[in-house]
Each structure stands twice: as C-alpha cells, then as structure tokens.
Amino acid sequence: MKVIIIDDEPLARMIIKEYLQPYPQVEIVAECNDGFEGLKAIQQYEPDLIFLDIQMPKITGFEMLELIDSPPAVIFTTAYDQYAIKAFEANAVDYLLKPFARERFGKAVQKYMDQQAKTETKQSQDDLLEQASHSPIQNQRIVVKNGSKIKIIPVQDVFYLEAADDFVKIHTEEGAFLKNKTMSFFEQSLNDQQFIRSHRSYIINVQQITRIDPYEKDNHIAILKSGAKVPVSRNGYVKLRSVLGL
After folding, report:
1. pTM surpassing 0.85?
2. What does the chain look like in DSSP terms, one character per residue?
3. pLDDT digit string (tens) for 3-45?
4. CATH homologous superfamily of domain 141-244?
5. Which CATH architecture fits 2-132?
C-alpha cells in the first residue's frame, strides 16, 4: 500500500511516520511540505492513500485535490475547526483533528483498509470537494492547471467566466484559463453581489462593467473595462439592474 504524507509541519509528518511503523504493508513513497510538492508526488507515485493537511502554504489541501484527475483516498490530518470538520466528515475516508493519539490514528487507517468499493470512495471524494468549494478560502480564489504549472487567480482578477463544453473558461488580464467545473458551480460559489449570471453561458464580474448597451430585442451587451463584450439575456439584465441599483 503506497502512502504519501503531505503536511507543512515536520513534526506532524514525523508523528504519522511513527504511527505507521506497525503496518508492514505500508510503504511511504514520499513526504511533501506543501500542495505543489504533493501534486507532483501523487502524479509520480500514484499512491493508494494520502495523509493530507488542509491549511498549507501556497495552496490548500482541497485545492490540490481539485487539480488531480483521479484523487487517491484521503485521510485528513488537520487543525481545521470542528464546525468545518463536521461538514466533511461523511465524505472523507476519515479525518484526524490535531493533535491526535495513536489509537485514533489506527482507527482511521483501519477504516480505510475496510473500505472495499472504490466507486464509493470516488463519489465521496467528489462530494467532499463540492462541499469544500464553499469554504471561505475557496471562494476568494480559483486554482487552475496551466500546462505543468499551477495558477492561483484571485476572484477580483476575473473579468468574466464563459461556458466551454465540459469546462469553464476564466477570462483574466493574463489570458483565459480552463477549469473542470460547471457554470452552476461558480454561480453558487462566487459572491452573488459581485458575479452575476448574465447569460446561460456567461458570468460577469460586475466591477468590470463600463456600460450595458441594447442588443437585439430584449437582449443587451455588457462592455467591460478590457473591451470584451459579454452577452446579457433578458433575465440577466434584470439581475444586473438589481445589483447595480439601476
């Protein structure tokens, strides 16, 4: 059983290694100090299980998982507050609230070993990431893969979002980036006073709008500071008028 430990605290990594010593079937293939290192290690070693901290430098544990096509099973080792933990409890393999005892650690490992159905595990990961996306940190930025690099986009830097088949294209001053999410996901997770679903295929950052011009029947066009022109449907126009106080 291949295992990777991802935690920015050396002491936490040391404790996990010590607690794993009684398990001869476990091979620790990598230790990582942050989400960037973790992502590379997971792609390289394809572990069965990872022990993952949530609050780390650069990107969070949740953001790292979003960048992996097929995330491995996860046991969280975290100092996250109890309220947040309850929201994820039903979906993660398990969580260990720091500081955790050897006995509690053993129960988490046994829970993983008892899990049989990989499809259930995968569904749990999907549910977990869906819930995690609504945490305050996740709502302030969007993390995307840009080739082999990771790009962190603060939401205030987003001009608009555009539906692109199974992806959403995020338009910024630096260009457009693809995220494997739905428009409905972003409509629900972004601040509804800043980002408005102007059209079935578009969400606008209202702070980027310079004017709204009429365009064919009941439709309009929003002109952004960048010069981009974004369609506005009849329903979208009503939403924009309300938010902009027109």
Report:
1. no
2. -EEEEE-S-HHHHHHHHHHHTT-TT-EEEEEESSHHHHHHHHHHH--SEEEE-SS-SSS-HHHHHHT-SS--EEEEEE---HHHHHHHHTTSSEEEESS--HHHHHHHHHHHHH---HHHHHHHHHHHHHHHTTSTTGGGEEEEEETTEEEEEEGGGEEEEEEETTEEEEEETTEEEEESS-HHHHHHHS-TTTEEEEETTEEEEGGGEEEEEE-STT-EEEEETTS-EEEE-HHHHHHHHHHHT-
3. 999 999 999 999 999 999 999 999 999 999 999 999 999 999 9
4. LytTr DNA-binding domain (2.40.50.1020)
5. 3-Layer(aba) Sandwich (3.40)
